[in-house]
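F.,

This is the one I mentioned.
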């Protein structure tokens, strides 16, 4: 993903302005594998999503029929809550943005 972003980013693609990585600041000990977490000081954008967003998130996960067993084992439906965080590639924002589109150029 980063390579594609770097290759495309520039004046020929003015619509491509930011690369955001979804991340977590903590992971439950009962996860069946190691999960990388981001230190709170490295979070560039943090906000709460709506109940409707969470419903869409769960429906999207349910579409992965071939990964249904993994999704069930990790209990990802229960683990993630309405607080979401992102690291922004080559950006550092203190305090973190509350909107992924903050300070982007209008298209």
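My design for it:
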């Amino acid at each position: 993903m980063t390579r594609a972003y770097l290759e495309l980013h520039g004046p020929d693609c003015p619509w491509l302005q930011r690369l955001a990585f979804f991340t977590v600041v903590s992971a439950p000990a009962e996860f069946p594998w190691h999960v990388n977490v981001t230190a709170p000081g490295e979070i560039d954008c943090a906000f709460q999503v709506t109940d409707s967003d969470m419903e869409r998130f769960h429906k999207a996960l349910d579409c992965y029929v071939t990964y249904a067993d993994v999704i069930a084992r990790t209990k990802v439906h229960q683990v993630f809550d309405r607080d979401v965080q992102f690291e922004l590639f080559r950006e550092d924002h203190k305090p973190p943005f509350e909107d992924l589109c903050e300070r982007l150029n209008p298209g």
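The mean pLDDT is 90.

Talk soon.
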